[in-house]
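User: Teach me something about this protein's shape.
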Amino acid sequence: MKKARIGIVCTVRKTFDYLTAYKLYQERSAEVVKDTSVEWVNYPEMVIEKDEAEKAGQFFHDQNVDALIIVSATFHLGHLALILNKKVAKPLLLWGFDELPYDGGKIRLNAVCGVNLNASNLYKAGVDDYIVHVGNTVDEDWIRAIKMKVAIENSKVGLVGYHADGFYNVGVNELDLYQKLGILIQHYELDEFFGGEASEEEIAKEKEVVLKTFNVNKLNDYQVNQVAKLCVLADKFMAREKMDVVAIRCWPEFARHYGVSPCAMMSILQSRGILLACEGDIEAAISMVAVRAAGEATPFMADLSQVNYDENYALLWHDGVAPCNLWDGKCVRSLETYFAGGKGVTADFVMKSGDMSIFRIDTARGKTRIFYEEGEAVPMDKLLSGTYAKVIFDHHIKDVIDTVVYTGVAHHVIMGYVRYKKAAEYLARLLNFEVINVK
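Assistant: First, the predicted structure itself:
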């Protein structure tokens, strides 16, 4: 996954306590750049005059930054942010420092007014991809949103087959997707995914993993071998094609042509950080990229499957594809063959408890939206086949369901054990997407 490359620059005015402000900037920016999940490009001088802004803007342009933090350490000329934006033309964080104690009755920084000036100028110039932040530490949610945006726009996305039969609601307009995110979908047939070569040694190695990870008492040797072989073939496919994520038409043809469904393979490979989406759902696949960038290394594509309005919970379930590292550590983690005439080999386990969220990028009626909700996965017994978590959302489950169905959100969401509500809202602003909030 490509790291976000973020620039940071200090703007000041000499009529204020600019030397103290610049010292504060150096101290605070030194803390910012400790985040090694980002490539930082720190401009080495303070920017005061218009020609200095031109020079700094060219520097960041040449450094090919993905976003820029413009620090208003004090009030400053109104030209500076406009010049920097013209040169860079990337999302901006307008960061103003808190005011210092007064010195003889004179305001020392007036930084918030500088942020206000920048925001007003940019807005009236038609620039909307800025976020405003006031405080003495950087806005971590903005950084996370930039990481999500960069991950999405630089992802290589594949579609193996097509969307599942009748799942029209997960189809996409590929040129619309290209226009909005710069993504070109790479198309493959099913046999290109599972039709490669796997040596006996490679299969045997993966078979050891299968047997160590799952109880396979309900499988025969052929099914275990086919799962292991598919792990080898899928891993090679993803590496050979340099894919960041693929959406697979995993039924109805897959099990018929290969011998087993891909569910168990997906559970295993996803636990290693390989992103695989079910049922040909491209927007779910892209959402998985975003959720990983938000901090969940192994996201889970789930159905909002079962709800209990009286007890206020939902079951986030899918046909045995959850990354096997998300197991609760208590139930028996097994492989099952309960569908597709015994060929539907799936992972079966209850997922771990903890704070969580669901996220989806979803397009309807020409508009692309971001749906997001938070909650908690709670313990439950293993009562059915598949992989699933019992979840109590922050809003009542009826309100969650009503929001989903009355805004047309598709029936797949991406679950992660991480919360990032503000970052998801920032991402929507940066991409000019609508936000769907549960009310």
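Now, about its shape. The radius of gyration is 25 Å. The CA atoms of residues 43 and 293 lie 26 Å apart. If you'd like, I can walk through any region in more detail.
User: That's plenty for now, thanks!
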